[in-house]
Amino acid sequence: MVTTAPQADGAIRTVVVTVPATSANLGPGFDTLGLALSVYDTLTASSFPDDRLEIAVSGSGAAEIPRDASNLVVRAIAHVYADVDRPLPGLRIHADNGVPHGRGLGSSGAAVTAGILIAKGLLAGDVELDDDALLRLATELEGHPDNVAPALFGGLTIAWTAARGPQHKKLLVHRGVAPLVFVPGFTMSTSLARSLQPPHVSREDAVFNVSRSALLIAALTQSPELLLDATDDRLHQGYRGPAMPETLRLVQALRAEGCAAVVSGAGPSVLVLADGPGARQRAVDLADAVTDTPWDAHMLAVDVLGGTVRERAEGST
Ligand code: HSE
Fold first, then answer.
1. Residue 119: CA count within 13 A, CB half-sphere
2. What lines the ligand 1 site, CB under 6 Å?
3. Which residue's CA is the nearest one to ligand 1's atom 1?
4. pLDDT tens digits, residue range 89-109?
5. With the CA atoms of 20, 24, 26 and 31 taken in that order, what torsion angle do they form, in degrees rounded to the nearest 10?
6. CB–CB of 69/110 below 8 Å?
7. Residues 6+ apart with CB under 8 A from 204
8. Which atom of ligand 1 is nearest to the CA of 108?
9. What are the φ and ψ backbone dihedral angles of 214, each rounded to 5 degrees?
């Protein structure tokens, strides 16, 4: 440990973590592609030389998030400490959540990532965790790497699992890409969404998604004008649509008008990858015209930094 003298409140160390929202899949890149977006959870966590567990939550999901050891942030911290064979310290955590909960914008991936980064910060000087270890630990809890990779590293990420564990490649998005997210008032369960997909798909559909995923990397990094074709999908959105008909209707209505709209993650939010601010405003206007469902439209930027952790020194905020 770098900090040896206890803080005035008895804490051993205090860290501040920020983690961005993420949108996974991006249409064809099921369980593979993800994009970090400029909405954030911010957590302050202190370690203590006892077994306390104090959790306070404000912002999105505050009413439902557990305040005990079942809390996902705490489970992620505990997962890291167990992995590196260190005893879990007492913890005091305050989470201020900007990432909408249960809306397909990576709230669970953000909680897992926050816990992993809190543990990294609290363990710094004793145990050092590299990027591969962070992604492995986060993926072990989340089940698939496509949200936690951009939450950890920012930008556009390609994530895959190799024999040596989950891997990622971060890419910078073309500055002409203007993300827009439509968030509804209702939620969608990721496990329900996953259960609606068949175990096998046709070769034709597999080839369809392989071609669109490859094209999507070119569209997002070099050629935003290709985004409409590049965001088409046959692996998940159609199967999941009946569980979120308003979402599918908005995606189809926007695509029919030339907007590159997709289901964000497992839904129910809709992500539009517009090729410029004008096209993005047009998508907002179109959505107003084609649906009665109230959608909150958020014009966002791509987050290029990913999750951050810093130690909070005594007396600072
Ligand atoms: N790739 C995941 C899915 C993202 O669509 O099920 C949601 O966690």
1. 29
2. 24-25, 30-31, 144, 146-147, 190, 193-194, 236, 265-266
3. 31
4. 999 999 999 999 999 999 999
5. 150
6. no
7. none
8. 8
9. -65, -45
